[in-house]
Amino acid sequence: MGKKWQIRKVNEGYLKRLSRSLSMPVSIARVLMNRGVFTLQEARDFLNPHLSFLQKLQELPNLKEAVLLLDKVIRERGKILIFGDYDADGLTAAAILARFLRLFSSEVEIYIPSRFREGYGLNREAVESILKREPNLVVTVDCGIRDLPGIAALRNKGILVLITDHHLPDFDLWPQELCVVSTWDRDSREMISPLSGVGIALALAQAYGEYRGTSVIPVEEYIDLACIGTVSDVVPLLEENRVIVRYGLEKLNRNPCCGLRALCEVSGLTGRTIGTQEIGFILAPRINAAGRVEDPQPALALLLSDEYEEAIKLASYLDVLNSRRKKEEEKVLESVFQDEKNEAYLQDEVVVISGPEWNQGVLGIVASRLSEQLDRPVIALTEIDGVAMGSGRSIAGFNLSRALECSSSLLIRYGGHEMAAGLRLPADRVGELRDFLNDNFAEEVEKARSRRGLVVDALVGLREVNEETLFWLEKLEPFGEKNPPPLFAVLDASLIRS
User: Are residues 381 and 478 in the same domain?
Assistant: First the structure.
């Protein structure tokens, strides 16, 4: 295949101790160490995740203050508006929080903006729409952490604001008095948890439930929704996320909520075992499709539905929208390769492509597909009325969000994390952005690419490919980001047939 490959190196002393202490094959112990699991206790926790581990969710900064703020508004019969992103992470987060808070108040509404009308986050259009609804408290889910002008506009009108978001904040501009529940520590400026937006929403619901002493336990009742959002957002399936997905998959396969049960039926998954692959490639794309080609409301309605007949209709509609999404995606890709300039830009280390009136909703997928194909970071932009907007996807080892932060003087707005970002800039500055990124980061991308190859977890003999190894492999699931399926190598073997 011509692909460089290497075996991950581990401390042999730790390796033998781990293997011996847990009576596991050395190859499995190697896999654990390659996933950052070194001590005996870490290994036990990784192999036997339990719902009780989610107690760690309560350590998120400002969670207690957020609970008290929620409780104050609820007891005063104030109106709460949940404002969320239009992707599967934001939609599941909004659904969890709304479902739970409606047990305590009839004054809970959800507002999910349209990608095509208002756009992402607490921008001017979204703020104007919020003000018309006259809430007492706005709770953001999976967005808002960088939208300081929008937050200020709401607070100036006397509206309380609670931000829950996992994206990278602007620490220098973060108001000290603002209540923010985040995966980032304000003082150290370090990420302290791998949670996605829905994970934070689940933590807030759980904390409020414990405060009020309710019989409904969010980490049990809504974990199937949290699982969908976590997998769809491609966050590391480690620590709390591993527990959320392990138990979320159990609930999905046993007794999912009404909307997800309908979506599974329409998607042809009834009777099949649902794993992370089924979420990532079948369920989540249908939830995302609504916001990508039209309006996110049908997807939200599905996640909130308790009527199966209604849920089936909504799920069927999402299936239709997903087919439309695929066609729009192919149209953009076809346009890229038919345009000589864009085709030339595909040779850059940081690929920036743009086109007139491409469907903005599919640009993240287009960037992702091209990034995987080219093994380079890709930014795909649509140009409408003098503004270029779109999404970027990166490769392992290159922090796209940091690169955009360095380019901020060229941008109207941006946000995201290491592997994915959204951005908006004047259309006549797209060329400047392309030049800046390649002038300043081409070498870094090239180094990241050169380090990438086929990395093998362990060398094994054919005798080790047995039922015992299979037993341990199943205990390593669920697989996903930062916990990929193990890759083993067998030397001096010939493939007779496949």
Answer: no
Supply the range of the domain harboring residue 183.
Answer: 56-255
Nearest to 82 by CA among 50, 101, 110: 110
Tokens linked to 81: 């508006």
Helix (H) / strand (E) containing 380: strand 378-384
* Domain containing residue 400: CATH number: 3.10.310.30
Phi and psi of 241, rounded to 5°? Answer: -60, -35
Report which secondary-structure segment, H or E, holds 160.
strand 160-165
Strands 108-111 and 488-489 turn out to be unpaired
C-beta separation of 137 from 79 below 8 A: yes
What is the predicted pLDDT for the residue at 1? 44
- In this predicted model, which residue has the larger pLDDT, 228 or 343? 228
Is the pLDDT at 102 greater than 50? The verdict is yes
Q: What is the pTM of this model?
A: 0.91
246 is a domain residue: yes
Q: How far, in Å, CA of 382 to CA of 362, rounded?
A: 10
Residue holding tokens 């896999």? 31
Q: Half-sphere exposure of residue 47, counting CA atoms within 13 Å on the CB side?
A: 21
Residue partners of 393: CB distance under 8 A and separation at least 6: 364, 367, 368, 370, 371, 377, 378, 400, 419, 420
